[in-house]
Amino acid sequence: METSFSSLDKSTMPRHKFFRVLGTGIGALLLTGSASACTPEENPIIDTTDAVQKIDFTLRLDDNANQNLKTKGGYVVVNNIIVAQTNDGKFVAASSKCTHDNTLLVYRPSANEFYCALDLSRFDITGKVIAGPATKALTLYNIDSNLTAGTLRVHN
Question: Per the database record, which ranges form the Rieske domain (predicted)?
Answer without folding.
Answer: 56-141
